[in-house]
Design brief:
Number of helices: 8
Shape: globular
CATH topology of the largest domain: Glucose Oxidase, domain 1
Order of helices and strands: EEEHEHEHEHEHEEHEHEHEEEE
Helix content: 10-25%
CATH architecture of the largest domain: 3-Layer(bba) Sandwich
CATH superfamily of the largest domain: LD-carboxypeptidase A C-terminal domain-like
Number of domains: 2
Largest sheet: 7 strands, mixed
CATH class of the largest domain: Alpha Beta
Structural class: alpha/beta
Strand order of the largest sheet: 8-15-14-9-10-11-12
Strand content: 15-25%
Distance between the termini: 17 Å
Amino acid sequence: MVLNRFMITPTSLQKGDTVAIVSTARKISKEELQPAIHLLESWGLKAVLGKTIGAEENQFAGNDDLRAADFQQMMDDPKIKAIWCARGGYGTVRIVDKLNFSAFKKHPKWIIGYSDVTVLHSHIHNFGIETLHAQMCLEIENKTKEARESIRKVLFGEDYKIEFQQKKLQTSQGIISGELIGGNLSVLYSLIGSASAMKSDGKILFIEDLDEMLYHVDRMMMNLKRSGYLKNLKALIIGGMTQMKDNKVYFGKTAEETIMDLVKEYNYPVIFNFPAGHIVDNRALIMGRKVKVNVQSSIVNVQF
């Protein structure tokens, strides 16, 4: 691992290393994982499947005890150099308090996933350890080449940056630096008041979400605002707000417009159209890493 005065970076992978694939949430079959396994092999890595793969209890990949024990085993096994979550859905919050992170804190390894895996990103961030917000194994073959390559670059410790053209509603130009935190808005909202809740002061917050009612977005953002999570940010970055839904009586604003309206009083950049989340171009984000964000007109460059 790499120590710096900000966070601990898990050790970079080398060819021949082993990556564990487990499911902390919904059930998944071995057949659905073949593209991800082949991708790891193309990078010179080995894949080992946990006991949760193929396990089933209603919608979950086995019961809570099995999912916790599977993740625990992979955290504690020194031969496992990274853990890639197979899929999201719901269920990670049901096992996080069953996990013992003692060995992980001494020998951290990359935890990879997004959406429901936001539970782990937020919980582990509070230990001072970086994690990798990136596409899960499921449907990795349907994501962009850039999304797949971004995972490889981070795992192997290569230089990594993201440059994109933002959807501009209202923002300021310039260069901002800060620790990157966040993930799925619904999950972050659900963690408030728990030991896994994020600490946002002085940091850059990233949020994304999928399949939510527009007024739910407003309700969640209002909670974050009233709880003080939005006041002292360095910047707010919005990824995919995908497949949002509305009532027959329209809410009247898009998700992006709702977010902008609630934070417009704050003096920090708000960046939209970031290539991460439940979208085809789901780029990797190093949660906990101090990043430099350069906003110039409609072009945004993020250097990790």
